[in-house]
Amino acid sequence: MKKWIRVLLTAMLTVSLAAGCGAQAENNAEKQDSPQVQTGQDAQSPNVQSDGEKKEINITWTNIKESQQQVWQDYVIKPFQEKHPDVTVNFQGIPDLQNTIRVQIGAGAGPDMFYMDSIDIPDFASTGHLLNIEPYREQYGMDDFMFDWAIDSTEYKGEMYALPHSVEATAMTYNKTLLDQLGKEVPKTRQDFVDICDTALSAGLIPISFGYSGENILLTWPYEHYITCYAGGEKTAQLLKGEIGFDDPDIKGAFALLKADWDAGYINDKKSGAIKNDEARTLFTNQKAVFNFEGPWLTLVDTPPGTWEFEWGQCAWPSMKDGMPAASAITLGEAIGINADTKYPDLCVELMMDFYMNEERCAQAVAAGFSTPARSIDASNYPEDMPEQIRKTLDVQDQNMNAESVGYAPWGFYPSKTAWFLNDNLDKVFYDQMDLDTFLIKAQECLEQDLADGYVFAG
Amino acid sequence: MNGLIKKKIKGTCFILPAFLVHLVIVLIPACSMFYYAFTKWNGLNEPQFNGLDNFRRMLTDYDFLFALKNNVIWMSIFLIVPLILGLGMALIFTKIGKIQLLFRSLCFLPYVVSATVAGKIFSIFYSPYSGIGSFFEQLGIRGLADFAPLGNEHQALYAAAFVDNWHWWGFVLVLMMSALHQVDAALYEAAQLEGANSWQILKNVTLPQIKPTIVSYFVFVIIAAFTTFDYVWIMTQGGPAGATEVFSTRIYKTTFINFEAGYGSALSLSVCLLALSVYFILKLVQKRGREQL
Question: What does UniProt give as the signal peptide span (chain A) (predicted)?
Fold first, then answer.
């Protein structure tokens, strides 16, 4: 009896293993049989795809708060599902998204749609993992209402490979109440800025709250501000086109000034490496710091209205050199990649385009705490009862985005190898583990490699 | 003979399903690393064979060599501190009768806390604004108010290692206690009759008797030290300024953040070979230890 039970169990295990492999093989076969790219006409007529089967679109996003997910549900997913009751849209936020997506997509799996930084587009597009959006560009008239530079940021070899989801203009967030207590005005020049930082330190305050422990990617904020306001947008563009190098006096000067400000303790009293960004935000919330490196996303999305019990404001980062205006860097905040292997490419594009094309719905979503879409929104579309914090942020962002001088934020415009090198190694300069010259030489090597690999500046 | 063959076939049948799963999930991907180590590959494109380029690059890769240094420090800490603590406390606990169970349980408690939870909790303790530093500040001890080891490039590695030690040493204690219980009591009696003092008993009876356990512990620690990842990643992700970078975090960043999967495979292969070499050396030592016993 025992012997037969053993034989039966062994057989069952072997069969289930074989069945598992078989199921995968069938799935793969099914995927290959399904149409990979459908015509634009199909997108306008979803019924063409309605063959009675239950359709499912999976969206993977960064690990956002529940309230944020609710905005997605209310303003993007629900209206789409009302139009397409046969389609289920699953929205999932995960930590460590970029790595997970790369592994999944590289393995030929992954979600239908996913968050991506525009600097990752060339890697995915060049290997055929992203759906070419070009056929939909004219169909939906994207060029008519989306920002040109945002569309350009999603191009690879002149063709769109992602949807530009949100845009932002970096800013300095300041505590006006503390500035008043220190007897200072909002800084416009380097001298104003240094004066406030020194006064704040003497008063036992942190000039700029900033934490990057375990998140080196956040180091992108400080060096963006310094490059934009010391070297300027034009020089940044020249650098990224390969016309000048990291050894250019203005570029080098920007990094040297950043290092000097770190050494002076302006940046979170040199303790940024010991704290997470959440803690730095708490320091700002608790009025321990005068400035914060973060821009509109902080007050539009991440800080619920009413959290700050002080008067605050946002403005462009002050000039860091005589003759260089205070400026912000524009960037595509979020892009949406569509898996080239999705069974429903038309529906995926339609899901987002329905939202982007509806100006009123976009305005309502932003008022509810959503990132600003890559299109202009007339102020009359925003609801009357929109929180003051959001209205204020939008005004500043609008002003910064339309300023005469703008820079280019690294997370939207820099090539990937260069951006990762800068993010991964800037604190070695802070901690004197690497001298500035070596840092800049290595950054230049990465940039040259990126340019040789076909990187094209999209600004 | 016939029966023996039948038994072997039966055994093989039982192992086969698990082995197939292991083959597909572990062995094939692990072996594919040998191939990818000789390619330029970003994880998405077609790997391009580039010979020994990855290995040449490794020799001048400052970050990797720095990680090697950190791994050696990490390994040294774990070869010494938990062993001394665990063995020392085990020697005390074996002499205190029934109450040892209570102390043993208390010491073992950190081992059941997950690495993520422990890492997060200690990150808070180490924070200059909400942790031990601010506690000292409130007490008016200015000298320690700036205690923020995770933000100090000279202290961060030791701070992270301390947490792993805190988590780990209770297990070493239990391991050593079980080894001590297996030592023949007659040997102690004989040593005492010969007039040996406590130190002589420890040196000449206890340590030689538990030597196989200690060597096994060394083997385990060396392999674990080469692959350590969790605490460093949770608390610092290799920072600040690369001060806590170890092999695993470097490999992870190279492969999944810088997207150089080919070079990442070469790094993994090197670490694997290094750990294997150390493992075989220690196995040799262990064998000789057994022969001497």
Answer: 1-25
